[in-house]
Amino acid sequence: MSAEPATDGSVRVGFISLGCAKNLVDAQIMAGRLLDQGLVLAESPERSQVVVVNTCAFIEAAREESIDAILEACALKTKGSVRAVVVAGCLSQRYQTELAESLPEVDAFIGLDELDRLPAVVRSVAGGARGLYTVSAQAAALFEPSPGRIVVFSGGPHAYLKIAEGCNHACAFCAIPAIRGRHRSRAQQDIVAEAAALLEAGYRELNLISQDTMFYGRDRDDGASLVSLLRALDGIGGAYRIRILYGYPSAVTAELLEAMAGARHVCRYLDVPVQHVHPAMLRAMLRAETVDAVAALPARARRALPGVALRTTCLVGFPGETEEHFAHLEAYVREAAFDHLGVFVYSPEEGTPAAARPDRPPPEVAEERRRRLLLAQRENVARKAAALIGTPATALLESGDAGGAGGWLGRTGRQAPDVDGVTRIRGAPAEAGIGDFVPVVYTGGEEYDLLARCS
Length: 455
Description:
This protein is of the alpha/beta class.
């Protein structure tokens, strides 16, 4: 369906971005393209003329959240200024034409390779076009942020720096490779240039993200690697820190740990999803190459990086998981004593090898296993918080603490944004401000947050 495009260059566009930080970066890229073409970012979806819903389709709960957000955005067309809704991201890419058929109230769909086309789509739907559909058969593009333009939606003095797209792993439970395509790394010089621009703009923590950060550079023929990238980023200069998120266990090499240990700006922090530890389960998950790596990872990392904070995720209720398999995982979680741990219940994803298996534990059993792992982790967290009392750290100030008089909320190198809790800080200098680094001493813990005072 076609219509005359909107002629008003000041069309206001609001964003709703769901899912992971990688999705947030996609939303930032789309927003940059809109600004490049003279469109305007609205303060909120309610105050926009076109709403873009950037969706997630990783698991069933994420899909449900995305559908709810789409329907809520479409409801805005019955009131206020909203004229149209555009759905972007993984849900559009994964379900192709089915989504358009089931959501006729949506005005346009774009896929993961069509971020550059969003300005034209927005102008069309703002001018009355309906039923637009632009989704490639397979995601294969690699996008750079708009030159000379900084667009960050993180809401603090930190930013996410996407270093690659796609994934070459074939985990039996995961649909991401089918949705986002093969791994493709950005050029190192482009990443370093973006990092320098973000630091110049005042961001003080850069979080490196991709589907598997450890795989960075392996698809290129120019010698780029995560180690070379870390060394280049570490040499930019100034007050800042770099954090590595989303790594594959078997790719945590001695060279990488050595590079992290020798870097001035790289946090002693590793986010390495292990998913499970029992060899039978890892083989069933098609992660057999991680069996030895997962078992040895905590001790290896702590030897190479004293004081390192370790984050991981575990998957329970996978087809074939017995009580014996789970008990093995539970014992590992208690012994490994990760600093941060997330637990997911297996969600069967169509098109993945595990989806057709009939031996999935009952949902109530899987939920109980999740509860037990989280209880074990809660005990780990309490012990670690107690052990930290009296030790020094450096915190990045992010906002005033609404729960205390004159306090601050910040994060130390042990805490990634959005997922690890915060540090509640007392005694900061009167001149302190958002984005400042301040020396602190830990004084305790409160659930998953840490407590500290300025030293």
